[in-house]
Amino acid sequence: MTPSTLGTGSQPEPHRRHEILQRLQHERNTRLAQLRAMDADKPNAHGDLLTAQTTAIRVVLKEIDAAEERVDDGTYGVCRGCDVRIPIGRLEILPYVRYCVRCQQREL
Ligand SMILES: [Zn+2]
């Protein structure tokens, strides 16, 4: 038995993995910039609206963290609901999603 017989399992190919992590990092930077922009000009009159927006952004940031963990444990891009691979087109738009379209609709 030689090391070359060891498979890579369900891990994405290294270049793919790098691309995914870069995309997630980009999403995170975008959200963090939005949060900073909102902090910078906080209009007191829109306090509630602002809180709702920052809450939504923080939820996405958590999703991004979770997606990075899934890249590490090899479950990235697999639907949590039905174990089917999430189409790459969907992952390009929403790199942190954990459900396929069908399961997402069921969740809502
Ligand atoms: Zn699904």
TrEMBL record:
Question: Which keywords annotate this record?
Answer: Metal-binding, Zinc, Zinc-finger
Query: Which Pfam families does the annotation name?
Result: zf-dskA_traR
A single GO molecular function term of this UniProt record: zinc ion binding
Per the record, the zinc finger regions (dksA C4-type) lie at 79-103
Q: Which InterPro entries match?
A: Znf_DskA_TraR (IPR000962)
Where in the numbering of this chain does the Zinc finger DksA/TraR C4-type domain appear?
A: 74-106
Gene3D superfamilies associated with the record: DksA, coiled-coil domain (1.20.120.910)
* Record's keyword annotation contains Phosphoprotein: no
Designated name of the protein: TraR/DksA family transcriptional regulator
User: Which species is this record about?
Assistant: Kribbella capetownensis
